Amino acid sequence: MDFDEDANLDLSKVEDARGGGGGFSGGPMVVGGGALGLIVTVVLALLGYNTLGDDSSSPAPSSSANLAQECAVSNAQRFELVQCRQVAVFDDLRDYWSTEGTKALGAQYADPRLRFFTQGVNTACGQATSAVGPFYCPGDQRIYIDLGFYDELAQRFGAPGEFAQAYVLAHEFGHHIQYLTGFESEVRRLQQRDPGNENKYSIALELQADCFAGVWTRNASGGAQSLVESVSAEDIKSALQAAGAVGDDRIQEQSGGRVNPETWTHGSAAQREQWFNTGHSSGDPKTCSTLDRV
Ligand SMILES: [Zn+2]
């Protein structure tokens, strides 16, 4: 993928809380489990939203001064840095979803925030460690990412490539769109009413976020203001590889567990790839109705 080398990055919705524990108070860790943690990310958000949904645990906004320096146009190497690529992708996602994306869905747009952290972080959904992987918290409308996750994605899950990182952020952004459309709270309601199918609903939520990531990918290099200038066939392969790599069946195999669809909450590798493809080939978020197809 290529970025617009001359564009200024908008850091106004980005919070850099890397280093120094990022405001983590060192209390008991509520989630963990390494790769398995990926499975619980949204469950954490959902549970957290129900039980710990007050904003008082959110730390004060962090300074993004270093990030501004690192990702300034004057740094010719800025797009070799994962954090600057993520900010560029984040701004491109905002650009698409604030206009065509939410318009197509008939939803009102509001920006999420992107917070980088290391080790652990306090959120409106409770405390989380890096072990859970990237996640979205509807309670404070933030996407939380420890950039170290991308090393794990490359090494442990065999999904290297810059676009794999873009896909992950686009998936989390998709969860924010689900918050805006009300699909996230609808799923939560369905889960409470029909606990026997809790995982099925969770999978529908996850697969729609994959589909939304595909939709954005299709539209990413569209606009004149677009920060992402091109997305190659190789990039799409890299995103599909990542979508498959973090499918529940693969994670269970990786972690030595028996593959047991009953405990799946994100969908299989094949399902995740399929829904990313659906979004990518249509470029239309209205094609992402996963609920009646899981
Ligand atoms: Zn997810």
TrEMBL record:
Keywords: Membrane, Transmembrane, Transmembrane helix
Name assigned to this protein: Neutral zinc metallopeptidase
Protein's membrane topology: Single-pass membrane protein
Entry-linked InterPro entries: Uncharacterised_pept_Zn_put (IPR007343)
Taxonomic placement: Bacteria, Bacillati, Actinomycetota, Actinomycetes, Cryptosporangiales
Compartment list: Membrane
Gene Ontology terms: cellular component: membrane
Record-annotated membrane-spanning stretches: 29-49
